[in-house]
Amino acid sequence: MSTAVMLRLRILLLVAGTISASTGDVQDNYPKYLAAIQNVSGLIAEEDIAAAYVSALRTPLDTLYRATANSQWDFSTNITDYNQNMSEKVENEETKKRREIGLTAKRFAFKTFENVTLVRMFRRLNDIGLGVLKDEEAAEATKLGGEMDKIYSSTEVEVGGKNVSLEPELTQIMANVRDYDQLLAAWQRWHEDVGRPIRPLYQRFIAIVNKSAVLNGYENLKYSWVENYETENITEIVDALWEEVSPLYKKLHALVRKKLKEMYPGKIPADGTIPAHLLGNMWAQSWGNIYNNVSQGSILDVTPEMKKQNWDVKRMFTTSEDFFKSLGLDPMTEIFWNKSMVTKPSDRKVVCHASAWDFATPHDFRIKMCTDVNMEDLFTVHHEMGHIVYFMQYFDQHPLFREGANEGFHEAIGDLMSLSVSTPSHLKMLGLLKNDSIDAVDFQLLTALEKVAFLPFGYLLDKWRWALFTGETPMDQMNRKFWEYRIKYQGVSPPVKRSEKDFDPGAKYHVPANVPYLRYFVSFIIQFQFHEHLCKESGELDSGKKLHECDIYGKEKAGQILRKGLSLGSSKVWQDVFEIMAGTRQMSASSIKKYFEPLEKWLDDQVQGETIGWDNAKVEDYMESGSECTHR
């Protein structure tokens, strides 16, 4: 028997022992298996050995993910120095383990494999993140991330003589107050008290993680991020999608600007931009909170009715669960109800940013959210629970494939449900809408202020970061470039002059948390494609209903399609899963444009005589003189 065959048998026997060791200590067998692999000279080209290796990784990866999720949860739901230190310690251990796993994976000649699934798995294993760095640098990046998270989550700012936090006080001010100066104070304090201290930390953090991307084989961090889409021309695809939807956005922008001019005489710049603090949201990313000031007719807001009927947070969550159950999908688990954090505690600081969590343990899925009883949070609950349903559906996949088919899928699923939940007919079914006179335009206007208004922000944030990662934007001009993009794509300007002392993108959670943002832009496009396909397949459009009137509640055919697509996780390329869920393999803006056809016709009438766009706006007009630092 040849040495090569003996080696293969030895390895496969070791792996088989590892896989079948459910009654013993798997971790005792795994190091032996690693040792066997590491003793092989040269690259291993045998696919059966490679398949056995990734199978053996199930338990170690689950153990790794579980420990990380628990430590991050402990810190996010109780911000203390101790929990921060413990979280950093666990993350450092994870980095070392990922390095061990990744370096072992590099012993395989996976690029020669015929099994496409194996190739995809090994590509993922070969990117070991911070594990490619020396321990000291990796630990520094982890510590910097924790410090930025702590600043963002625990900062209180002084507004009106009171110290207030982002959630709920500042968020409520931006949503409900209409006084120009009070909004300005809230906006300025948050952006400066959070952004400025984060700036030097972020600069060092990006230098380290960009280096790790290069050492992992990417040109820079941009290409590490877009690798998730497994599509070489994804940036060109996204650019084309933006070009398709930007005319609709500009018409909506013109209407809102027209209304704000009436509300704030002399306060709206002549260049056509809108000051960022007047749009009902700290980042001007969604404008639904100014709906009452823009709507022409009856107002669609069920918040007063929710409070009148004594809705509480638990009812909001059970209502969301009922929607998913009506599709034939699984209910939330007992652990979900027992361990989720769904209201803001009064006895400790927490990260209020709503998020869904997968603990790599059967039935352990949770939501962290500082929920308020209002219509916006009712829709957010559906969004976050959509993540949980996705986790549950693909739980049986290999850990390497327990994620959305691409990053946009996960974000799209919860919002997909909100497209049905937010229809007047569904709100009426819930007993929350008594007014029968809500017409299509009023309903669509509210939806557009959330969905269409978001698109340029979702598009530009990563475009801005990519320019940092590639070196196109020098670090000493990053705030200027941020506002250049916000003016160019969003038509939104800072309400006071900015400088390079400021770091306004750092006042947005996803920047210090280093969470890619393109997923949200993609999700806002594809959720309408999913919606149209599910509506067609479930017969909702057969009776002449328009797309914006469709409600898939109770449509088990829609649930069957969702279950089939979601259960695949990322085990197939996203186009394969997309075909199941959208009936096509191409992302397109056709569905979102079809959805908003009635609104666009109405907007055409409303903005006659208005300037569409802001072509003459220049970032230089909003930067303090001398803030454009020269560099060698």
Q: Could you please describe the fold and organization of this structure?
A:
- The protein is mostly helical.
- Among the domains are: 3-126; 143-298 and 453-515 and 611-622, no CATH class.
- Helices cover 58% and strands 3% of the residues.
- Strand 1 (157-159) and strand 2 (162-164) form a beta hairpin.
- Helix 16 (375-393) packs across helix 17.
- It starts with a helix and ends in a 26-residue tail after the last helix.
- The model is unreliable at 18-28 and 627-632 (pLDDT under 50).
- Its EC number is 3.4.-.-.
- It comes from Ornithodoros erraticus.
- Chloride binds at residues 229, 519.
Attribute tags:
disordered C terminus; two-stranded antiparallel sheet; mainly alpha; two-stranded parallel sheet; single chain; 632 residues
The gist of it:
This protein has helices at residues 3-19, 26-38, 47-56, 58-76, 81-105, 116-126, 135-154, 166-176, 180-215, 221-226, 234-263, 291-294, 303-308, 313-326, 334-339, 375-393, 407-421, 424-429, 440-451, 455-470, 478-490, 518-537, 556-566, 574-582, 590-595, 597-606; strands spanning 157-159, 162-164, 274-275, 355-358, 365-368, 492-493.
